[in-house]
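Ticket reopened. Same input as before:
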Amino acid sequence: MNKIITISREFGSGGRSIGQALADKLNVKCYDSLIIAETAKESGFTVDYVESQSEDTQGSGIFGWLAGNYYGDSNTHQIWNIQYDVIRDIASKGPCVIVGRCADYILHDFDNVLRVFIHASDEFREKRIVEEYGETDEDPLSRLKEKDKKRKAYYEFITGEEWGNAKNFDLALDTSTLGIDTCVDIIASVANKD
Amino acid sequence: MNKIITISREFGSGGRSIGQALADKLNVKCYDSLIIAETAKESGFTVDYVESQSEDTQGSGIFGWLAGNYYGDSNTHQIWNIQYDVIRDIASKGPCVIVGRCADYILHDFDNVLRVFIHASDEFREKRIVEEYGETDEDPLSRLKEKDKKRKAYYEFITGEEWGNAKNFDLALDTSTLGIDTCVDIIASVANKD
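Engineering reply: fixed in the latest deploy. New output:
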């Protein structure tokens, strides 16, 4: 298996679980929180701060970015630059799975990337974020909409591409209708070709 | 295999070939031009006319539609109504493959539909429409853009949904990176579950 599999996913669709299951099945590493930790280490910021800057174009995020162009590297800009390098460094080391982080965009010039988009119905995701993620503080649908809005804004701001456009991916799969296991099987079988 | 597989596709991406190969593999019928022929038979219009009305919201198409709401059924409206019934009738008879015709939308309330979107790079499609479809009269890229624009406009007008949005499909597959055979295998393996 010689592919770098990037998984872009809707919040609550099971993309992270798919990433881990794929990595286990294909005997490679799955990078998600590891990237954040590595970025934090290199940037000197805390893991929590790096995580909060990674999906936020609201408030200080986007303005910090814009300001950075005039006043020198803002925190967001610095974190992005480091994360960009961390991801490209990971990819250069060989086959792996990378979840989120606009990795599909960052690795645009690598020729062995399998770009996957994972999505699901609101109903499936609402249930999942409560049962699997323990998100019980606020109404699940509101939580979904909030995260969807942020993730979409961040992805579109970073990549200039439309979030959820099928044409940006080799495979786009609906976990609520196909099931997580079937999605893992599909991606693994494609990854194992060539 | 108990599914109705609907294939929405970009022009030149090989969706029709996939539909036929799938039908052969799953031992069911593939409906595409058959629907047009059936619609023509029932409407009294020629096959060519029905075909031209099926992807055209420009000129008489959309205005005919709007006019039909005030002045009684226009040709476009009539053809749509008949095609709608033809497709639902086909689907009610059992498992099959249906290519195009907004079938994913028409069968929205059927619970055994597998909704597939097939797309490919411009480069792949340009090559295909010349080599496979024999489209040599005009510049391939212009031909692609013209068909893309029409197909998108028609789909969005009919369904109110965004053409190419991954969330409207269980599976969205890129034939230029995965290959047509792999796409057939993926869809068939999913269709054969349950």
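The domain at 4-189 of chain B is CATH 3.40.50.300 (Rossmann fold). Confidence is low (pLDDT under 50) at residues 58-64, 67-72 of chain B. Please confirm and we'll close it.
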